[in-house]
TrEMBL record, chain A:
Primary site of residence: membrane
Topology versus the membrane: Multi-pass membrane protein
Compartments where located: Cell inner membrane; Cell membrane
Matches recorded under NCBIfam families: PRK10561.1
Record keyword Heme present: no
Recorded name of the encoding gene: ugpA
Species lineage: Bacteria, Pseudomonadati, Pseudomonadota, Gammaproteobacteria, Oceanospirillales
Keywords carried by this UniProt record: Cell inner membrane, Cell membrane, Membrane, Transmembrane, Transmembrane helix, Transport
Record family assignment: Belongs to the binding-protein-dependent transport system permease family. UgpAE subfamily.
Protein name, entry field: sn-glycerol-3-phosphate transport system permease protein UgpA
Start and end residues of each ABC transmembrane type-1 domain: 72-284
Automatic annotation (TrEMBL), chain B:
Species for this entry: Vreelandella malpeensis
Keywords: Cell inner membrane, Cell membrane, Membrane, Transmembrane, Transmembrane helix, Transport
Record Pfam families: BPD_transp_1
PANTHER family, A to Z: ABC TRANSPORTER PERMEASE PROTEIN MG189-RELATED-RELATED (PTHR43744), SN-GLYCEROL-3-PHOSPHATE TRANSPORT SYSTEM PERMEASE PROTEIN UGPE (PTHR43744:SF8)
Gene: ugpE
Descriptive protein name: sn-glycerol-3-phosphate transport system permease protein UgpE
Length: 294, 282
């Protein structure tokens, strides 16, 4: 790893400078994570007196549990829907803002602020709009003969959390797509225009392929967001229900560990989640490296 | 654009206007709801035009709060959120700028090891280690305290990386010149490195402030006393009691108040916000 051409040498100063961050990292990250790994191999009896080493049996039970596989499937559907919805809308808006030169800044301002809205708040806002008794949208849907009640219908509950989670993420995707669009060389577009390509053809054959690094990067970030940051959205709207229709992996770790106090199973689930994060981080870094050479 | 197409230009603006309206709509509805009296929600649909209870609702929530729901006054929760967000932003920036300085400008044993220990935190968001981290904080006696709320969220590899990347682009000559002039490392840090990093610090501050403000799962676990409720957590508590007393106007006033500070930060410091966002995530 690089340093500067010339560096300082000092007996204790660098350690002192690193101490605060290392202390916090060790106490609140490394130690708890290693505890999670440790207790994922153990089982504690019902009274909490005895802890025995049980090998991989927690993992085996988690992976054989239909509830866990259900949560895994729900999370996958949720992640794909939110990613597609929020990235699609964000790309459309970014393309439009990139076209209007004079008012670009104005529109950008009006589109970026939801980034600052807490996931819980996003959940509450959409939950209010979709409230089966007084909500506005169920009334509109009623005209079309759709009976909306996300407290009963699992599909509708899923749609609700997808919209709320995607709504909050649009601003983020929008900013990155806009930055990507602004770095597309103008000469390429002009050349295509001279060749008689229509704006739509130009977009699909030139702009969109050039955006692919941004798109890929955003896909990873969005999956990460859906997996970990949507806890608040779910807790505020459906709390995993009805039944387990909107139970995601993180929500299940929470309900099993905090509400159910099943530490062994919850730890095994945490460790599996860490594995997923490590995989996502790895993919992201591989991609960043490749893009540097791009 | 390359050519001027009237139809396409109109369509572009149309899409943007619809987009802006759809994005703003839920917030508009929430705000309108907060200007009505509680009785307005008993029958029919949510109203879409402003009511005349704006002052009544907001002064009640900011002042005494909503006693029935067991939530503290909103000003207290806003203060808690502000303290938490500021502490996280200050804390993250301070510890990561110091460690990035050590990693870039010093040569010492275990440098690589330190780097990797910090790097690993990237892979451990609080959501995946909820229960063991909670146990650590409980054992340290930090439940229901500002330290318990903020310290576990302060360590951040992202900020350290950002500063490391930035320090690598600072011209070598600055450090060499200051050394020739006889300045030690800390003097160089204070008088030269900090001043040239100020824009990066500010951009990161905006992002970290928002990060701290929107935290939910962690406050939910470590605070059981109302005195330490953050506003985001308070909303959930109000919602939980809304089955009994559906005081939508009060809930939506709290929701509105919870959004104002971070949204203002984004709007007023848009340039820094965009810079911070695009640089921390890359």
């Amino acid at each position: 790893m690089q340093t500067k051409r010339s560096t300082y040498r000092h007996r204790w100063l660098p350690y002192l400078l690193l101490a605060p961050q290392l202390a916090i990292t060790l106490v609140f990250f490394i130690w708890p994570a290693s505890q999670a790994v440790k207790s994922s191999f153990e089982r504690t009896d019902a009274f909490g007196f005895k802890t025995t080493f049980v090998g991989l049996s927690n993992y085996a039970r988690v992976l054989a549990d239909p509830g866990y596989l259900n949560a895994l499937g729900r999370t996958a559907i949720f992640a794909v829907s939110v990613t597609v919805l929020s990235m699609g809308v964000a790309l459309l808006l970014a393309v439009c803002v990139n076209r209007v030169i004079k008012s670009a800044r104005f529109y950008t301002t009006l589109l970026v602020w939801p980034y600052a809205v807490a996931p819980v708040v996003a959940g509450v806002l959409w939950w209010f709009l979709f409230n089966p008794t007084i909500g506005l949208l169920p009334h509109l849907l009623d005209w079309f003969g759709i009976n909306w009640n996300h407290r009963v219908s699992g599909t509708q509950a899923m749609i609700l959390i997808t919209i709320a989670a995607a709504w909050k993420q649009i601003s983020y995707n929008f900013l990155f797509f806009l930055a990507g669009l602004q770095s597309v060389p103008h000469s390429l577009i002009e050349a295509a225009a001279i060749d008689g390509a229509t704006p739509f053809k130009r977009f699909w054959t030139i702009v969109f392929p050039l955006l692919s690094p941004t798109t890929f990067f955003l896909m990873i970030i969005n999956i990460n967001y859906v997996m970990f940051d949507t806890f608040g959205v779910i807790d505020a709207t459906t709390a995993g229900g009805p039944g387990t229709a909107t139970m995601t992996l993180v929500y299940k770790v929470y309900t099993d560990g905090v509400a159910g106090l099943n530490i062994g199973s919850s730890s095994a689930q945490s460790v599996i989640l860490m594995g997923i994060v490590i995989l996502l981080t790895f993919i992201q870094f591989r991609y960043v490296e490749r893009r540097v050479n791009y | 654009m390359v050519e001027n197409r009237r139809f396409l230009n109109v369509l572009t603006h149309l899409v943007l206007i619809i987009g802006v309206l759809v994005v703003a709509f839920p917030v508009y509805v929430a705000f309108i709801a907060s200007t009505h009296e509680a009785g307005a929600f008993v029958r029919g649909v949510i109203p879409l035009t402003p009511g005349d209870h704006f002052w009544a609702t907001y002064s009640q929530m900011l002042g005494s709060g909503w006693q029935v729901a067991g939530a503290p006054p909103v000003w207290l929760m806003l203060a808690n959120s502000t303290i938490m967000a500021l502490a996280i932003a200050f804390g993250k920036i301070t510890i990561s700028i110091l460690s990035a300085f050590a990693i870039v400008y010093f040569r010492f044993r275990f440098r690589l090891l330190a780097f990797w220990i910090i790097f690993i935190t990237l892979m451990l968001p609080v959501e995946v280690r909820i229960i063991p981290t909670y146990a650590v904080v409980a054992n340290l006696g930090m439940l229901n305290s500002y330290a318990g709320l903020t310290l576990p969220l302060i360590a951040s590899a992202t900020a350290t990386f950002l500063f490391r990347q930035f320090f690598m682009t600072v011209p070598e000559e600055l450090m060499e010149a200051s050394r020739v002039d006889g300045a030690g490392p800390m003097k160089f840090f204070k008088d030269i490195l900090l001043p040239v990093s100020i824009t990066n610090i500010a951009a990161l501050f905006v992002i970290m402030f928002i990060y701290g403000w929107v935290q939910y799962l962690w406050p939910l676990l470590v605070t059981t006393q109302e005195d330490f409720y953050t506003i985001v957590l308070g909303i959930k508590r109000l919602m939980a009691s809304s089955d009994r007393v559906p005081a939508w106007n009060l809930i939506m006033a709290t929701v509105t108040l919870a959004m104002v500070p971070p949204v203002m930060v984004v709007l007023l410091m848009q340039k820094l916000f965009v810079k911070g966002l695009t640089e921390t995530e890359k």
